[in-house]
Amino acid sequence: xxxxxxYNSKINSLKNTSKITKTMKMVSASKLRxxxxxxxxxxxxxxxxxxxxxxxxxxxxxxxxxxLETREEVKKVLVVLFTSDKGLCGGFNNNLIRFAERFLEExxxxxxxxxxxxxxxxxxxxxxxxxxxxxQFDLVSADPGAHTASKVMKHLEKVxxxxxxxxxxxxxxxxxxxxxxxxxxxxxxxxxxxDLEKGAGEALDPVTDILxxxxxxxxxxxxxxxxxxxxxxxxxxxxxxxxxxxxxxAMDNATTNAANLIEENTLxxxxxxxxxxxxxxxxxxxxxxxx
Amino acid sequence: MSYNLRIxxxxxxxxDGTVDSVQATGYKGSFGVLTGHAPMITALRVGPGKVVTSTxxxxxxxxxxTLEVRAPDVVMLVDYAEKTPTYEAAKEMVAKDxxxxxx
Lengths: 291, 103
Fold this sequence. Notes:
The complex is a heterodimer of chains A (291) and B (103). With 291 residues, chain A is of the alpha/beta class. Chain A has 5 helices and 6 strands.
């Protein structure tokens, strides 16, 4: 049986652990709130950009911009995986990695070359020796900003337009609640009807007698990439919200477990102390009797 | 004479209020919008800008985006908008931002 001293040091270390997990939970909770607020703001912005595009172009069709064009033959597809940089967030990253593996396994024989790109280290570390890697974007998951998103987007836009890839997909954990994140697959490029808010409201009359600088067409080629950038930014935020939600839950569980362990060990320590006292008493009494 | 200006970025609204004029860097150079401007849509480049309200002048650095005069209001959609204390500070920051983009 371990001594009282051993129990005490164990209990102390458990207390320290639970302090850390409790703090991590609180930090994640506040980061989660921030990510969710950013998502709301980003949505408002995208809506405004969409409205503007529709006002300029009247109705948006495929020929408007090369980023909207669906290629007839899809030979190469890039899948961008969004994971976190750090661990300690339950099954958050593993769920997505398993989802990606299943996706690739199912499409092994359909004659399309899939390559992977990563935002976030966890996914990259898992796949680096298992799949064809296109690129890993460093340091984007931890601090999702519109600026980092547009950097990622510029690269993706380039490889899409120069024909390196015919389609670009994104795999992101959708944030349902802090308890549940579901891996989902979205199409990033070419842009889909949904991105253009098609069918949302009536078609607006294109504005005609309006000054524009540069011309309308150039304006469009300036605005459409903004939608792509928004999608990447939104995915980064979704990923961040999911990560913090998952970490919150994981750390909450860890804190509860630590509390249970502390209780158990305190009981054992008290028992050990009682046993020591009893032994001592017996020794004294039997010593006295012997006299 | 004043009108309502909204400045929106992907990270959230930066400004929403009544202003006397706004100045930004357009495709061909710096320009300003006063009350009663004809409807206009224009692309913006990274550059310094200012917002003049009845209480004073605020300097900003605006990222790429658009400015739309949707009479009588004005809406700016920009990648980012950062407040700076002076025009010189704004210009300095623009130079830094442009250098960063090139790198």
